Amino acid sequence: MRYRPFARSGMALSALSLALDGDQGLGADQWRDLVHCAFEEGVNAFEIVAPSHDLLTGFAEGAQAVRRHLLFVGLRVGANADAKMLQDWADNVIATARLEELNLVTLEAGDQADGESLSKPLLAAMRRMQDAGRVQKLGVAGAGEIIAEPIRSGAFDAVATPFNILSGWRERHLIRTAVERGMSVIGCDPSPGDVSALIEGADEASKPGWFKQSSPLAGVGTYRFLRLTTGWSPEQLCLGYAFTEPALATVQVRVADREHLTTLAEVAERDLPAAISAQIEMARFSAERASGVERRSAMRRSA
What is the pTM of this model? Predict the structure, then answer.
């Protein structure tokens, strides 16, 4: 496993980190085994989401043999939570998981692209927890313009935002802005859900038909290569690409079993195949251009 610095905290985070979601329905033993596997693979950064009793119990059992200063543990709070829920969750995580404090509490932004997307009572509660020594750093989570103002505000130490093969200059600009302001960036959703549809569309377009022959260049400028790269799955290629972004302190994934986690952790030790980054950029550019042409055509039809 490779490690990256977390802003000015002095902590080094594993390149791959885990979001542990209590809504995944795992039992305490399953959470314990997953956390054990994470440590075996060198993962030291975790974010607790929807902290169920089984999740916290399993995490505590899985982490009891690891020194606390080697762990980075965060808590994610939804935009619809309230201050009491935040306090109860934080107290429960710290007590049940046998922690002294949380390294990070991250608030999810709402759906408004301005400062009102964040709950002021929740922000105040987070700051009180920080002042009381219950949490070290404060973070915000969201995508696009929703988190632009929170990043500019300087009120947060970290930001969690999607970064993957579909991310364009806007997403990169937000990440660069956060880094310039001294924030750590956690990359989320490295394998976007609609990649399979993109691959299938490229496969269909590349098939020879009655009036077209197969071409050695078929699939160039599409995401078809994600399925054709020897020794790599589409998910591994997507994760490997996210690792190439130096501005990310860690890339966060959600998994529910040891085998899946092991497969992804291996990617942190591998170099992305030659020319893959270039193929990703060509495919993304082609998709953006096609989308622009389609939008302009739709506008002309509706005029």
Answer: 0.86
SS3 category, 156: coil
C-alpha–C-alpha distance, residues 236 and 255, integer Å: 13
Q: Distance of CA 291 to CAs 38, 91, 179, 190, Å?
A: 40, 47, 30, 22
Mean pLDDT (whole number) for 72-88: 91
pLDDT band per the 50, 70, 90 thresholds, residue 280: confident
Q: Which of 239, 228, 98 is nearest to 165 (CA)?
A: 239
* Tokens read off for 249: 């302190």
Residue closest to 106 by CA, chosen among 129, 67, 9, 167: 129
So what's the pLDDT on residue 116? 64
In our burial notation (b when 16+ CB lie closer than 10 A, e otherwise), range 150-171 reads: bbeeeebbbbbbbbbbbbeeeb
211-241 residue pLDDT tens: 444 444 344 467 888 888 889 998 999 999 9
Please provide the CATH number assigned to the domain covering 3-189+242-270: 3.20.20.100
Residue type for position 55: L
Mean pLDDT of the chain: 84
pLDDT digits (tens, 9 = 90+) for 128-175: 999 999 999 999 999 988 899 999 988 899 999 999 998 888 999 999
The rounded distance, in Å, linking the Cα atoms of 75 and 90 is: 7
Query: CA 279, CA 285: separation in Å to the nearest integer?
Result: 10
Q: What 3-state class would DSSP assign to 285?
A: helix
Distance in angstroms (rounded) separating the CA atoms of residues 85 and 63? 25
Rounded to an integer, what distance in angstroms lies between the CA atom of residue 52 and that of residue 126? 21
The structure tokens listed for 235 are 């998910």
Burial of 93 (0-12, 13-18, 19+ CB in 10 A): buried
Locus of tokens 């990617």 = 267
**Closest among 219, 217, 152 to 183, alpha carbons compared:** 152
The CB density around residue 95, as the number of other CB atoms within 10 Å, is 11
